[in-house]
Amino acid sequence: MFRLFQITSCLSLSLLLSVVGRAQVSKISSAKQHLESASSAAASGDAAAEKEFRKAIELRDGIYPEAWLQLSLFLRKNLRFTDSLQALETALKQKPQLLSTWEKDLGIVRRAAELQARDSSGEVLPVEEMIELVNAVDTFAYHEAAKPYAERAVVIYPQSSSALITLASLIKWDERERAMDLFNRAVSLKSSDPLVYIARGRGFCWIEGDGYRAEADFRKAIALSNGLNIYAWQGLGDALARQGRRNEAIMAYEKYLAMRPENLAFQDLQIKRSIAALRTQQ
């Protein structure tokens, strides 16, 4: 009789574990489906994505680093930096091996969350930090979302060449005339700074298609920086190429390649392609 009880108990436990196991597998499968649905919604900009991400996480009892990570990306794209930071920190806590890949992003999102929180509280940020916030919004979201921040920076700091250039760079394709006016104002405010000439030179080159005035600005930037600003050389190459002065353009591009730091090596391919194209034209 005792033996029969043992067998019955074992069978009951086995059946219970089987049921629990199937339920757990079902939850995991359902969580995966919600994550896939969330990813699809996020790709199309659908606000319902957040609900799907959180449902997927809930079905995994909160332990779903992949979902937390995707939720973080979705939230920061929608400028919810504090929520994005919390989601990213949760993902990295649950899966520490991701830290080496996402450590840089973690720092950027943390900084963006801090600046946004201070700005939202009514604090007037220094111009450098306002521009930092503009760049974060532009990086994580899109130009249109960053423009209001840049417009406000110019209103608060109308004498800041950096604020003027930041706004001009955001509106250059939609408001070309105004962008060039902002570049001109930046030059008049800080005529000894090579960066304002580089910014305006790019405007002349790419907005107005004027390689000659662009060349003048890039050469001014080279002179003011004692020939040490690599972007002035790159811009000069662009301006000379636009004029059809192939050999001089190649020399300017090669000057850039010779001077650029190792961490900018990823830009080499485009420059080398430009050089190859110029040589082919010859």
How would you characterize the overall build of this protein?
With 282 residues, the protein is mainly alpha-helical. It folds into three domains: 46-123, Tetratricopeptide repeat domain (Serine Threonine Protein Phosphatase 5, Tetratricopeptide repeat, Alpha Horseshoe), CATH 1.25.40.10; 124-178, Serine Threonine Protein Phosphatase 5, Tetratricopeptide repeat (Alpha Horseshoe), CATH 1.25.40; 191-282, Tetratricopeptide repeat domain (Serine Threonine Protein Phosphatase 5, Tetratricopeptide repeat, Alpha Horseshoe). It is 80% helix and 0% strand. Helix 1 runs antiparallel to helix 2 (49-59), helix 3 packs antiparallel against helix 4 and helix 13 (246-259) packs antiparallel against helix 14. The radius of gyration is 27 Å and the shape is globular. The termini are far apart. 34% of the residues are buried. The mean pLDDT is 91.
Number of domains: 3
Compute the CA-based radius of gyration: 27 Å
Given the helix and strand composition, which structural class is it? Answer: mainly alpha
H/E series, N to C?
A: HHHHHHHHHHHHHH
Envelope shape: globular
Number of helices: 14
- CATH level 1 class label of the largest domain: Mainly Alpha
Question: Portion of residues in helices?
Answer: over 70%
CATH topology-level fold name of the largest domain? Serine Threonine Protein Phosphatase 5, Tetratricopeptide repeat
